[in-house]
Amino acid sequence: MVIGYRTALRILHDPEHFPADPRAWQQNVPADCPVLPMMEWRPNALRSAGTEHTRYRKPNSAAIRGVDLHALHSTVEDAAGPLINAFCEHGSADLISQYAFPITFAALNAMIGCPPNVGQRVASGMAAIFEGVNADTGNAILAEALGDLVTMRRKQQGDDITSRLLAHPAALDDEEMQHQLVTLYGAGIEALQNLIVNTLLMMLTDSRFASGVLGGSQSTRDALDEVLFTDPPLANFCISYPKQPILIDDVWLPAHQPVVISMAGCNNDPAISAEDLSDNRSHLAWSAGQHACPAKSAAYLIAQDAIDQLLDALPDMQLTVNQDALRWRPGPFHRALVSLPVTFPQSPPLNVSVSK
Question: Most buried of the four, 1, 63, 250, 301, by CB within 10 Å?
């Protein structure tokens, strides 16, 4: 595990010595290994190197560039109103199950072109994989759901990421399509939900941002960037597998064994610490190099819009419990709360109009 920022950058920008292809490693890994579904080889950009990586990265980047950010903003707004109305009159809510997950789910399904019933199966499978509990079953659920989505979009294409992937000159087959979507959902559901929740937690508990809810100087974008530094939604990931033993910082790393970048560790490396993180986006939460996240703009938009919609509607929210009483979900990769309970003055429903 790499916890030094500059060492991580060196590794992330050296795919020749640190390729992302795990096939040699996984030959000796038991099939029931709980982290295998997150780390195993898949025919997609995240788990490939060289020409294979290029083959998969190009259609993914093109499909994501085709996302209409104005339409995505409307999607988030349209989802936020009914979700807030479902709990605003009660004076309390769990912001994960009642808000962050469903709004992330709606936005991601809209971008990918996935109907909610299929997306729900995707979410269930992905949660099991991240937590490492019944991960092999989760992997099977995920594969079946994404196979159904690909079949559906081959018959009827639309203005969505899945359809654009299918139409790309790379001519991805059904199995390749499934594994592109695994990456998109893996980066989307878990990481984006956690980003929204971890940022809300900071804005509700840090005086710089808690006052900002009612007109302070710190913005939601400032809060997002600080969380991406100090409490990233994926704590550990960006895995590579050296082709031969290699000396890094006086440590010999063995061939074909996983090198895991701890984004949480590297971002908080004392060697690069800064008191003021405003407008500082040098964190590694989006990774770096040829595997850097191609969907940053969409992720920022969804997270910021979701948070702003909620805090505009219910600016007097407070945690129901002490911050120390909050529980974090176990798992080697994510930084995710079990729940985020809040209270607020009971409020009348919002006047919701759905965008066309």
Answer: 63
For the entire predicted model, the pTM comes to 0.91
Go through the domains of the chain in sequence order and give each one's CATH number.
5-343 (1.10.630.10)
Give me the percent of the chain exceeding a pLDDT of 70.
Answer: 94
Report residue 315 as tokens: 């600016």
Q: What does the CA dihedral 209, 211, 216, 220 come to, rounded to 10 degrees? A: 30
**Which among 209, 177, 250 has a CA at the least distance from the CA of 4?**
250
User: Which tens digits make up the pLDDT trace of 290-322?
Assistant: 999 999 999 999 999 999 999 999 999 999 999
- Phi/psi zone of residue 2: left (φ > 0), alpha (ψ -120 to 50 degrees), beta? beta
Q: How crowded is the C-beta side of 60, counted as CA atoms within 13 Å?
A: 27
Asked if 32 and 136 count as a contact pair (C-beta separation under 8 A), the reply is: yes
Could you read off the pLDDT of 46-63 as tens digits, one per residue?
999 999 999 999 999 999
Report residue 223 CA to chain centroid gap: 17
Question: What does DSSP assign to residue 241?
Answer: -
Q: Can you state the percent helix, strand and coil of the chain, rounding each to 5?
A: 55, 10, 35
Task: For residue 330, give every residue at least 6 positions away whose Cβ sits within 8 Å of its Cβ, in sequence order, or none.
Answer: 131, 132
- Rounded CA separation 152/131 (Å): 29
List Cβ neighbours of 117 (8 Å cut-off, separation of 6 or more): none
* Residue entry with tokens 């950009």: 45
CB-based contact 21:288 (threshold 8 Å): no
Rounded alpha-carbon distances, angstroms, from residue 150 to 23, 42, 109, 209: 25, 16, 13, 42
**DSSP letter, residue 356:** -
Dump pLDDT digits (tens) for 117-133.
898 898 888 888 777 77
CB 202 within 8 A of CB 224: no
Q: How far is CA 236 from CA 20, 22, 205, 284, 289, in A?
A: 15, 17, 24, 10, 16
Instruction: Give 307: exposed, middle or buried? Use CB within 10 Å, 0-12, 13-18, 19+.
Output: buried
Q: How far apart are CA 211 and CA 224, in angstroms?
A: 16
Burial 180-194 (b: 16+ CB within 10 A, else e): bbbbbbbbbbbbbbb
